[in-house]
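Forwarding these from the shared drive since the link keeps breaking.
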Amino acid sequence: MNEEGPVLEALTHRLAECPADFLAEARDKKSGSVHVDAVVYDLIRDLGGDPLTKEQLVVSEHKKGSKNRLQVILIACWLLHDPWFRYRGRFAEKAYKLLAIGLDDLATLVQAQQLVTDPDRREELARVCLRALELRPAGESVAQAQDRLTTLDSVERVRVIKEARAAEERARKIREEMARKAAEEAAAAYGRE
């Protein structure tokens, strides 16, 4: 994230104006109209990359929650097709990694439509994409960019919630054990009297 990227507001605005073609149902083995692999292929080429091989076109392979995942990939493709990225012609490899595996966790937690309709989710997707390209929003320091992404990061939020619940469960068990021992000691002391 050492390199300055585009203005964040331009990216979130682009997401808000995502065309219906990118919001149409992604094609999987059963149904859908948009061929995600074809969109990814075109994007990678437009970002300056070599044409993808058939083996590389596995972005749409079946995974848990794949319909939503495919929709998230399509929306990210729309975002990354921004002229700012295309004109530089050097982000193809990092964009491919993001699209192939980098959005999986986000797609399990956030519905694709929210990445277009919800302002915080738009900002989150824009920041996730910038981070994957090793960029930060224009006008932000590295620390500011990392802090803001951490604040918005759905995956991080779920991890923190799970850790907090686990810590609370451990504390509950400790309290119960302490109460049990106190009761045993009280009973033993009462028995001696």
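-- next protein --
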Amino acid sequence: MKRYTLHSSFSIYHFEASTWLHSVHKHTYFEIIFILQGKGIHHINGNTFPYAEGDVFLLGPEDFHNFEIAELTEFSFVRFDESIHKEDAQDKDRPWQSVIRTLLNTSSQSRGSIVENKVEKQKLHQLLSVLEAESMHEQTHYFEMIRDSLMRSILIILARNLFGQNPAKPLIKDSVEAILHYIKQHIYQPTHLTIEHLAETFHYAPAYISLFFKKQTGESLKQYITKYKIKLIEARLLYSTLSLKEIADEFGYTDESHFCKQFRKYTGTTPTAFRQQLFLNK
């Protein structure tokens, strides 16, 4: 399956299409998809949702999707990585940080469009209009501050709608969404992500939780955890100044050699070569 990479921490892609030209794909980043006009079908993680004007979807890394366009559709894709909600020391304990963190760590794709209320949709689309207008001047001194403020507002409104929805489809304690959420919360704690620990946490037999997860997602628990970790590491390599040793320590690798070996196994390149891509693509 094709995987798209974001070569900056933020971008907006606004376009119209009558035919969807991309195959089913994943990303290394988060993506808010605004439907400005048109209708069709949005396939996400094996689920099928009709879409129409005003709908808003939130996809995270490892979500896979594609569209079937029934009527000329105007899209706006807002793409960003985890650095968009970086925690400054003065912001660490502010309520909006935990709201955004929970939103981005919660799988929302069994619910389709996050926003149902017409007024809420209008608010989000108005914020999008301002964000797109400001993005035309991204080289100015104030752009990042305005962008971050607008993104914070968009994400908090999405969180309010997602968590405030009528719980027709609740996050069941032993559902695959609960397991995915737990993995994202504990990705820096390898001891919490062993098959044995996950089985105990979710009250499954070790053999059964592996079968259950693979049936629901199409890949094994171990493979999903490793690929999700590699995705986060790719972002560290491209957008941080951490050394390889510091990244290895952060993600619980026993040593730098083991980290480099696993990274190359899953990406086909070394961490150093991958980091150099950012400079080669500028």
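Confidence is low (pLDDT under 50) at residues 166-172. The radius of gyration is 19 Å.

- D.
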